[in-house]
Structures are given as structure tokens and as C-alpha cells.
Amino acid sequence: MLSFEEATARLQAAGQTHVLRFWSELSGEEKDVFLDELSQLDPEELSQHCRAAAEAASRASGEGERLDTHMEPVAAEFIGSVCKSDKETLKQWDDEGILQIAENRVAVLLLAGGQGTRLGVSYPKGMYNVGLPSGKTLYQIQAERIQKVQELANEKNGSKCTVPWYIMTSEFTLEPTEKFFKENGYFGLDPSNVIMFEQRMIPAVSFDGKIILEKKNKIAMAPDGNGGLYRALVDNNVLEDMEKRGVQYVHVYCVDNILVKLADPVFIGFCVSKGADCGAKVVEKAYPAEPVGVVCRVDGIYQVVEYSELKPEMAEQRHPGGELVYSSGNICNHFFTRDFLQEVAQKFQGQLKQHVAIKKVPFVDEEGSLVKPTKPNGIKMEKFVFDVFQFSKKFVAFEVLREEEFSPLKNADGAPVDTPTTVRRSLLAQHYRWAVQAGANFLDEHGNPITPKLRCQYPVLLLLTSFTQRSL
Ligand SMILES: CC(=O)N[C@H]1[C@@H](OP(=O)(O)O)O[C@H](CO)[C@@H](O)[C@@H]1O
């Protein structure tokens, strides 16, 4: 741990000595806690970060104009599709994916470092119980889906395989997540195949480039965004662990989508058979302002333009037939080869764009009292997981059906969309369809059969055959 003098020198070098203004009021223990936090900040990186944040915030408004003129949609013929592909092709992709899983070449990686601010819970989102009859949490649903895909691969290939589960957490989520998994016996998975690691935290900064204090002895810190993954992979030797296990393909996903298909064999098989090093699942956007990023090209390079950075005029553009021009909604389900991740970690991770989020950051005022600001006062810098697409040599997009694969938990009940109620309904509706496909009959209160509404009937049927046993 640093001495007070060392900490002062470091902060001086970074132009941030204001954070020590309450030093004389702190107890011995509080001083130690603070010095410990300050020890973890590299002075060079710190001053760069504060400068970059202030500069980026003043530049942020210019990005929209650039996108207007340089952005174009991905042509439909370049997007693989569950809905538009024939039975034989889908089966080939499914077989290929299952084979890769059976041969222990596939891992899943969960991005679970976020704070669930919109949902309004203080614990990790994965621990949320959405009120299913089974009472299962998002973590449990995901664990059981991993188990099921392993079983399916084992049955088909007569092997005993493992799909390791890498979980990226943050200072906010690591401890409660570990505790939750332990208390629940890792939901039946072998603990040695559940690998948790932590992403970095970075300071929140005021508009004039000064670190914000959230307590007299604590800096306001935030996770470095889900694109912090690439640095965390290096910090925690995760790629070495994957190499030891023989993992070649990684399915990366975010925690809140209740319908996520862990290590989806069709998606894995599609990406592998196209020779892709990087891939993204998309769904057709439901409405222009839907808070999903859009997969598109900017200056001819594939990327996701995040919803927070897309101007409404662009989001609302339509083709003459009425369909949205930017309709490929990112569902945060990505495919990467381990080689690609290795390359990004070694060569490009420092070049990832810093996205600016202007937020209300609670702070201590000159008297040392905590203030909860009513308007934004600070900058949080975040990296985005999809910003590595530009480094890909072969990028593919894969369109899937929303009702089968995307229903995210973002907001608390009361909001119109993406709430515990809507995700619960999505999962129950999916199970209803699966039950019907397996021969069940549902009757309404008058004893009349209820007819299922299935869009795109054929591929759903095919996927159902392979996923029926993966139900909950
Ligand atoms: C940086 C990032 O990954 N953003 C993703 C992610 O956004 P959230 O802000 O976490 O809701 O999930 C969305 C899908 O639920 C996806 O559309 C979006 O692009």
C-alpha cells in the first residue's frame, strides 16, 4: 500500500490532489481504506483518463453528424437467418455446433458486471427472480441451459463434454455472485468449470476533468463497460485457461436476456461453417426508439451503433415498403474465436473507443455532505464489447426470431417494456409453444382449444426439436 506522501505525489502528477481535501478529518482506518484504493490507480493512466473524459464529453455531440453521412445498413444478403434458411442448412449448422461442443471447443462467457440501475436492484441482475412458477433466477436458467446443451452433445456424440462458463463480474457483483453460486451448489455444474473474474473499475470524472469523490475517503468508481472484457481477459489470464481447456469458440452474452440460448449450436455452427472470427446475433428492431444497438457499416466497416448514439432521424428512416432501414437490432450475443480474442487482447484492446456517458454521480460537497444531484454532473467512460468488430477479418451477422431468443430484463415493473412481467410472459409463451409442439393440447376456460400463433413456423419447428429438451 502507498504511504500518504506517495499518494500525494501520484495525485499531484495527475492534477487530482483535491481528492485529499478531507484527509485531516479521516480516522486511521478510513485513511488506510483510501490509501488502498489510491494504490490501485496508475498515475499515468489516471491523468490520461481524466483528460480524455473531459475532452470526449465536449466532443460527444459531433459523433451524430458523422454517422449520418457514413452509416449504411448491412445488406440483407449478408445476414444469415434462422427464418430464411432451409431445413437442411439449419440442420447442418446445428450438427456442426453440437460437434464443436461435444469436442470441448466451445465456452460461454457471461457479461455480468453491470449494476442493474434501470431495474432498480442493488444486487446482481442474474440473481433476479422474475416470478416464474419455478422461482428460478436468471443465473439458474442459464446454468440449466448449459447443462442441457452439454447433455445433448453427449447424447449425440457419445462423449462427455464440458462447456465452461466464464463469468465477468465487477467490484459490485463478484462477491454476491460467488456467494449465490455457492449457496445454490453451482446449480449442479462442476464449480471448476465456472470461472468468475473481475473487470476493472475506473473513476467518474467531473466536466472539468476532476475525479469525483463519493465519500470523504472514496472515489466514485464505475465498471469500465462491457468492453472492459478484453482487458479483464488479460488481467485474469482467462485466455490461457481457455487454451488449456482446448476452447476455440466463445459465445459471449449479457445477463439479462431470459431467452438466451447458451452456446446455441445453430449459431456456433453457422459462424464456424462461414469461417468467421467474429459474429453477432440480431433481431428485427421492433420500433425506431427501441433501446438496442444496430448492426450496420460505418465507412464500410461492420460495427454496432449503440442506441444512445443513434440520432432519432436515423433510427426512424424507412424503406419505401415501410421497413426500418436500420433494423438489425443487436441482442448482445456474440461469437468470437479464441484466436481473435487473443489478437484483440494483445494488439487492439488499448485502441477501443471510449464512450461517454453523462450521468448523475452522487458526490460529497465542500462540507463533506453527500449530494444526490438532480441533473447530470459527471462523466463515466465505458468501452463496448462490440467495438472489436472492426478488427475482424470475417464478420457475420445472424438473424434470429425475437419470440424465441430475445426478451431482456431492463426495467422495473410499471415500465411498458422489458420488465419482470414481460420477460416472464416471453418464457412462458415459449414453453407453451414447446409443449404444443410436443403434442400437448391447451384449452381455454370453455374447453375450446387454444391455437398457437407461430410466425415462421418451419424453423421454429426445427429448433424446437433440438431445444425441447433444453427447456426449464
Ligand atoms: C454496449 C452494449 O453491449 N450494449 C447492448 C446492451 O445494451 P444495454 O444498455 O445493456 O441494455 O444490450 C442491448 C440488448 O439487450 C443491445 O442492443 C446493446 O447494443
From TrEMBL:
Sorted alphabetically, which keywords does the UniProt record give? Nucleotidyltransferase, Transferase
Question: GO terms for molecular function, please?
Answer: UDP-N-acetylglucosamine diphosphorylase activity
A Pfam short name: UDPGP
Q: Mind telling me which CDD domains this protein's record contains?
A: UDPGlcNAc_PPase (cd04193)
Protein name as annotated? UDP-N-acetylglucosamine pyrophosphorylase 1 like 1
Per the record, the similarity remark reads: Belongs to the UDPGP type 1 family.
Among the GO biological process terms of this entry, one is: UDP-N-acetylglucosamine biosynthetic process
| Gene3D superfamilies associated with the record | Spore Coat Polysaccharide Biosynthesis Protein SpsA, Chain A
